[in-house]
Amino acid sequence: MQLNNYILQHAQLSSTSIQNTIELLNEDCTVPFIARYRKEKTGNLDEVEIGLIVKLKEQFEALEKRKLAILKSLEEQDVLTNELKEKIEKIQDLTSLEDIYLPYKKKRKTKAETARANGLEPLAKIIMSQRNNDLDTVASKYINKDIKNEKEALEGALHIISEWISERTDIRNLIRRELERFSTIVTKVVKTKKDDEKAQKFKDYFDWSENLSRIPSHRLLAILRAEKEGFIRVKVEIDDERVLEKIDRKLIKSNNESGAEVQLAIDDAYKRLLLPSLTTEAMNIAKEKADESAIEVFTKNLEQLLLGSPLGEKRILALDPGFRTGCKVVCLNKQGDLLHNTTIFPHPPQNQVSEASHTIEHLIKKFNIEAISIGNGTASRETERFVKNIPLAKTIEVFVVNEAGASIYSASQIARDEFPDYDVTVRGAVSIGRRLADPLAELVKIDAKSIGVGQYQHDVDQSKLKKSLDTVVEHCVNKVGVNINTASASLLSYVSGIGSKLAENIVNHRNENGVFKTRKDIKKVARLGGKAFEQSAGFLRIKNGENPLDDSSVHPESYSLVNKIAKDLGKNTDDLIGNYKILKEIKLQQYVTNSFGLPTLKDIVKELEKPGLDPRSKAKAFSFDETIQTINDIKVGQILPGIVNNITNFGCFVDIGIKESGLIHISNLSDTFVKDINEHVSLQQQVTVKVLEVDFARKRIQLQLIKK
């Protein structure tokens, strides 16, 4: 089976687009590069469609690899016929492949294998034919030193028949279909753990049953976590009688002794071999789907967080709030470099409000601070109130920043390398300040799983999660573009074609030789060859360089085309940039060639209109309701401002300025049916909500979205 045909069967894409994309991937082109700069070749596929081709390509290669291993095994066993080989080569999924291989698979010693060794396979064939009605007489012929009587002979033969039944693909698929449509996941609490305090968060699942095919991903993952922690027992149930009747109709041909024995073998095969195996398979499939759903939610949230609004290059004073240990204060320049750090104690038990106020006023004047960033952890609201009450000479906006993962960063090797002479508290405060200036540039330094924008991230397939999150980070970094003269190695490592080693080489080159003045200079970086330059150059920006195109997403391979367009218009290239009137006059069709089609030409013109434009919106200041300090201040019917801080499949959580986030259930997001939550809210979005219900005992708040 050809790769192209395999992808065609699983994706609604043209054969030409698939073939050309595969060729580009085989040439080590990255997904962002292909999507942005090879539109003519792919038929204008976007990153999602190219990503699907990548996924299907990997699936196909895994399938082909497994086929080769199985064919080799069958050859070694000397059982590979031309018919079997042809059958294996035509298979298009791993499950069917493993079913065909099952009878030949090396197993630990089974009851059926022992029976065969005792010479009982001929007896099993006689019984399976269902033509004999005097089995004791037939069985007596198989008594030997290992088989003492007719009963043992019949038992051994039935073990062989049970194995035959369990290996039949049609029987396995029959049970699979029943499990897929009608199976139920059932939970029971472990009685000795029922009153365990930690078990109470899983109380809803102490006695639960639900159709396995319809259970939401978050609920299945919660149930599996409760099982893993030993609070409940989980099993998959099905209507055994109905399934057995269907198998009987397939296998039982005679109403005689042989038919009765086959009936016993069916029951044994079903309960001992088929059901345990296939219910485990069904649960694994359900878990895999739940993982995919949870990972999808996580990746959407991460993308929204990474593309959060940046304040831009500003001089920032950042505070990492605290009570007893004080508030760590840092001052950063426009590039995010640390200029000063200290600690203030405006809160109990010290209550040094006056001294702390004086310190903040002094630092704002000394470093000409333009904005203040406060972490949203412990003492955040109190610190925000304290700062806003300081009588400053000029108006400075105060921002509360999500500090999730800041502690992970501050203790990381990246942070130690950046600030070897400072402790974790200073590093954490710096991260809070930098997140305000540019969330993307700072968050890429942290393991995405630690950012806290998903559910059950530790319960899903970790390799799939990492791969998906890395893909999202790569997408976001390349969508925004990177200033090569200020970017950290962490940020650069996600640029198309770069990777961690080349990122370090870029930073080292920059430190030793000064800033890059043109994109051509990038080629001077050690080990950065032609391919890496081709893949990365369009995503690397050079501000205030010698060539204005270097601060745009126009690829260097298109510079000559832009120069030709400018020359034809009697202008310099500089004259085109930002000049909408001139750009509108360009007759794109006359510049179409085999190398440059209309999609690329339109992209170039769009970029020339606003070169290097950051696709992210600017950060906006926000204030919580000052009257709300704890959950005890919350009352049903209140209208409150909030910030969306997590999105799940069943709704979104909103920070309303207290320790407990409120939940807007999917049913309370809109008056109409909500198909995709992300169409109604986004992470870090400022919203207005209405309090519907407060459960003080369980510290849960139900909200309704009333204003976006």
TrEMBL record:
GO terms for molecular function: mRNA binding; structural constituent of ribosome. It comes from Tenacibaculum adriaticum. PANTHER family: 30S RIBOSOMAL PROTEIN S1 (PTHR10724), S1 RNA-BINDING DOMAIN-CONTAINING PROTEIN 1 (PTHR10724:SF10). One of its GO terms (cellular component) is cytoplasm. This is S1 motif domain-containing protein. One of its GO terms (biological process) is nucleobase-containing compound metabolic process. Residues 637-706 form the S1 motif domain. It comes from the Bacteria. Pfam families: HHH_3, HHH_9, S1, Tex_central_region, Tex_N, Tex_YqgF.
